[in-house]
Amino acid sequence: MTPREAAALIGCSPRHVKVLCNKGILKSRRHKMPGGFYYLVDAKSALEYSQAPQRQDWQRGKKRTAWQQVHDETKQLFEKE
User: What is the DSSP letter of 25?
Assistant: First the structure.
């Protein structure tokens, strides 16, 4: 699977998937091509990572800024009405 597909599954950016591959957190194969590299991410590894709980109880794919949290709470209040 490509980093873009893995990112959609995990809920992060493709760039972050590449960082996870470089750190060895996600299993992947790195293939050389002219001008750089491309990655093929192991689908099973990406699925296991997407289902693992995060350390700080943050939901995957959700922004961690205080503004975003306030925005989400406000949006939920208006949706209830």
Answer: S
pLDDT digits (tens, 9 = 90+) for 7-61: 988 888 899 999 999 999 999 998 998 988 888 999 999 999 888 877 666 666 6
**Number of structural domains found in the chain:** 1
Rounded Cα–Cα distance for residues 24 and 19 (Å): 9
User: Which residue bears the tokens 């990572």?
Assistant: 49
Quick one: tokens of 45? 């590894």
Task: Tell me which residue range forms the domain holding 32.
Answer: 3-80
CB 42 within 8 A of CB 26: yes
Residue 44 corresponds to which amino acid? K
